[in-house]
Specification:
With about 800 residues, this protein is α+β, with helices and mostly antiparallel strands. Helices cover about 25% and strands about 30% of the residues. Strands 1, 2, 8, 9, 10, 11, 17 and 18 form an eight-stranded mixed sheet that branches. Strands 5-6-4-13-14-15-12-16 form an eight-stranded mixed sheet. Strands 28-29-30-27-21-31 form a six-stranded mixed sheet.
């Protein structure tokens, strides 16, 4: 056995073998995989082997498309068969809401190059004759859907990796992982110790146990899952004898997926009375066993399936496959460098291994070899969960996700499991005021405030919801008087030390402000991609405050620590510092009444330490609403005292609370972008307009400078623009295609309704040469093309007089 390696991958399922192969594909040959038993000994061997591209996140869908196309490449490289069956697949819609979702997904696929299509009930009957179309409105057909041989595919990955120089060590259980002072790892196994520069945890069912060896908690949990293979079905026999194969059918109403298996059918269920497995840990001696059959928990699902697919009732049960596989709380994989631990990488919780395993392997290999991925990996980044997450939170969220595997995913939906979990000192006050709660990064956030007598629940919808009127009231309060909301939705970081300014100059692309001022700046990757959208506040020469998206804390802290200088200290104070934003034409009057310090000379983008009421605060004159406004920060124990002061004084000025729904409407008035919508690693500063905040004059070689300068020289090919949309009862959410002259030329990044201007607004990318005032386009919303016009003048305070005055 090798005793040294550049990368040690722990786990020999399809994901571990994919990572191994992709590392060799990108040029790292000194890599090895360690498996406690045989390859495929976890969830892989009993997987149903289906694959599909449908995914609510466009980057995940693209990676699933890559995975599916990769299998023929593996067969060509290795000469081995993956047992591919590209039979296509159809997802059924039995309600208008489901059909709306499928139309929205089809629209996304247009600019992604995926050839899906909306089909009628009659077409479904022709495509998938086993289906009873009673009650079906329509469906989405995907020609890429299919299934394969799980074992053959995994061994094809393994052989391709070996051909690239990789080593695979089976029957080699890992006992310990111990980090050396230089950041490398000693992987202690039953056969001896392996010294590795990097570890990849691809442990699957045992990922929790492998992570615990390094003191790392991975938020995932195994769930029991059951599927049935039938005896021969007459209809399927006819199709086979005619030289055909029945396509896949996904029936969300019945929480089932169905495909042909020989001359019979295979059908699996995501049943509501589901069960977590191995709650206190996965036994090391588990492997090629199955769980006992449990027809009771899928009894209702089977009854429904017999009605949807009557042919099932004609055949007996040939075999039952009941085994565990792992989920993260949101169902997406956990991939990437583990925050706070050097050279430790995650490739865990890949629930759909044969749809996603290739893409996961590619992204992780790019991350390790090149330092960054070719696309935004936020949906599967292990850093999307912070150190606040616990097994007690993970388990109910995993159960919820399993139960909603085939449920409609609405853009405004707030899932209830494991909530409330994390709250600020304002929770009870806002709750008594009628807050309708959302959550971000585990923290409860008011979405809006329901009027007395109104429902405290936002109806999930692709169209305008029952939050519409409440949001309009809150927007009106801000624009005409004064609104207040909490600023716990900002990630906050304290940067100190003699080298703080120099470090910020290097890690941020924008200008670092002088004392008493703040600046806006993008943070770039080495390839010039946007990895942050920050406010820098200079409190003194050796002390700065950074603010950015609250949900990106672990992501940003990981980057900061990877690039930290010796004479700089950084502290994440997101949950130690909180406060309020006040905004609107009366904001200055309220703040002045709450402090004895004269603020009449406080300019836009000024930062000051003020005592507000009894509380020492940091006050910034800036507001994401685009209005006259202030961000007022204090320590957490003082927050309620600060609230009492601001709220008491604000009542004589008509102060009202406002939530995130109003905030997202207000920012559209000024065409302000949002993190992971307009600003993400999929885009560059020049494409999004953030290049105006890059300081090309500074002499520092900031990260991403050469890439940004190169794009400055050549120019971006696409431009982020704002559009006024002739919408009906549904607004842009994200990724709707933009049509021009009969072709899809761009896509939307976000949108919504401007309650101030009473217009539907969309933000999106179009080719630079077409991005001119008044450009007429069509934006496809829920399958219908709506007229839209490109606009360049903000809807509110176009000259900035109120915001800056």
């Amino acid at each position: 056995m090798k005793t040294t390696t550049r990368v040690a991958i722990i786990g020999g399922g399809v994901v571990g073998c994919s990572v191994l192969y992709h590392l060799t594909k990108l040029g790292w040959s000194d890599v090895m995989l360690i498996e406690r038993s045989e390859l495929t000994s976890g969830s892989t061997w009993h997987a149903a082997g289906g694959f599909h591209t449908l995914n609510g996140d466009t980057n995940m869908a693209a990676l699933q498309g890559y995975t599916i196309k990769l299998y023929k490449e593996l067969e060509a490289i290795t000469g081995m068969s993956c047992g591919l069956h590209h039979v296509g697949g159809v997802t059924l819609a039995e309600t208008q809401e489901r059909f709306d979702m499928l139309k929205a997904e089809r629209a996304k696929h247009r600019f992604m190059g995926l050839e899906t299509e909306i089909v009628s009930p009659e077409e479904i009957k022709k495509i998938a004759p086993v289906t009873n179309i009673d009650g079906i409105i329509g469906g989405l057909y995907d020609p890429l859907d299919g299934h394969l041989d799980p074992s053959g595919t995994t061994h094809a990955y393994a052989k391709a990796a070996r051909l690239g120089g990789a080593t695979i060590e089976t029957h080699c259980k890992v006992i310990e992982t111990n980090q050396r002072p230089d950041g490398s790892w000693d992987v202690v196994t039953e056969k001896g110790t392996i010294h590795a520069e990097h570890i990849v945890n691809a442990g699957g069912l045992w990922a929790r146990e492998v992570g615990a060896m390094a003191g790392i908690y991975f938020p995932l949990h195994p769930m029991e899952h059951q599927y049935i293979v039938t005896d021969e079905v007459p209809l399927i026999k006819e199709i086979v004898e005619a030289g055909g194969e029945h396509p896949h059918v996904m029936d969300p109403a019945g929480e089932s997926y169905l495909r042909q298996e020989g001359r019979g059918l295979c059908i699996g269920f995501y049943e509501q009375p589901c069960r977590p497995w191995a709650v206190d840990g996965t036994p090391w001696n588990f492997g090629h066993e199955l769980l006992p059959d449990d027809f009771d928990k899928i009894e209702d699902s089977i009854d429904f399936a017999y009605k949807r697919f009557p042919a099932l009732a004609e055949a007996g049960v040939k075999s039952v496959i009941h085994g565990p596989f792992t989920f993260a709380p949101d169902g997406n994989p956990l991939v990437g460098p583990v925050p706070g631990v050097r050279n430790y990488w995650s490739a865990c919780a890949v629930m759909a291994g044969f749809s996603q395993g290739g893409g996961v392997g590619l992204m992780l290999a790019q991350w390790m070899v090149d330092g960054e991925c070719e696309r935004d990996t936020a949906a599967m980044d292990v850093a999307r969960y912070g150190d606040w997450i616990t097994p007690g939170y993970t388990r109910p969220k995993v159960v919820e996700n399993y139960q909603k595997r085939f449920s409609i995913s609405y853009p405004n939906e707030e899932l209830p499991a494991a909530r409330p979990f994390r709250t600020t000192p304002m929770y009870d006050i806002f709750d008594e005021m009628g807050a309708v709660w959302g959550h971000q990064y585990g923290m409860e956030v008011p979405n809006y405030f329901a009027a007395e007598g109104q429902a405290r629940f936002e109806t999930p919808s692709f169209r305008r919801s029952n939050a519409f009127e409440a949001t309009a009231r809150e927007v009106k309060a801000v624009r005409e008087g004064i609104g207040i909301n909490e600023i716990h939705n900002f990630g906050k970081y304290r940067i100190t030390g003699s080298g703080a300014r120099a470090w910020l100059d290097r890690i941020m692309a924008g200008r670092v402000p002088q004392q008493g001022r703040l600046s806006l700046t993008p943070m770039l990757s080495p390839k010039g991609r946007l990895i942050g959208d920050f406010t820098i506040s200079c409190l003194s020469e050796g002390e700065f405050q950074l603010t950015a998206s609250y949900g990106a804390q672990a992501y940003h802290m990981r980057w900061f620590l990877q690039n930290l200088d010796a004479n700089v200290s950084i502290e994440n104070v997101s949950d130690q510092v909180n406060g309020f934003q006040i905004a609107g034409p009366k904001a200055a009057a309220v703040l002045q009444a709450c402090t004895r310090t004269d603020i009449s000379d406080m300019r836009f983008l000024d930062v000051r330490r003020l005592t507000v009421g009894m509380v020492d605060c940091v006050v910034q004159r800036v507001s994401y609403t685009g209005d006259l406004g202030y961000e007022i920060y204090c320590d957490l124990p003082s927050q309620r005292a600060l609230w009492t002061t601001l709220w008491s004084e604000g009542q004589s000025h008509g102060m009202k609370p406002f939530g995130m729904r109003a905030m997202m409407s207000l920012r559209l008035d000024k065409f302000f972008g949002s993190w992971l919508s307009e600003f993400s690693p999929d885009y560059t500063a020049a494409e999004t307009g953030l290049d105006r905040f890059i300081s090309f004059k500074k002499s520092v070689e900031f990260i991403g400078r050469s890439a940004a300068e190169a794009e400055r020289e050549t120019g971006a090919e696409r431009k982020l623009c704002a559009f006024e949309v002739d919408a009906e009862d549904a607004d842009v959410v994200a990724y709707e295609p933009i049509w021009l002259d009969g072709d899809v030329v761009g896509f939307c990044t976000s949108g919504g309704y401007s309650h101030f201007a009473q217009k539907s607004i969309a933000l999106g990318f179009v080719p630079v040469e077409r991005a001119t005032e008044g450009l007429e386009v069509e934006i496809e919303i829920l399958g219908k093309k709506q007229r839209a016009r490109l606009i360049t003048e903000p809807l509110f305070d176009a000259d900035g007089a109120r915001m800056r005055g």
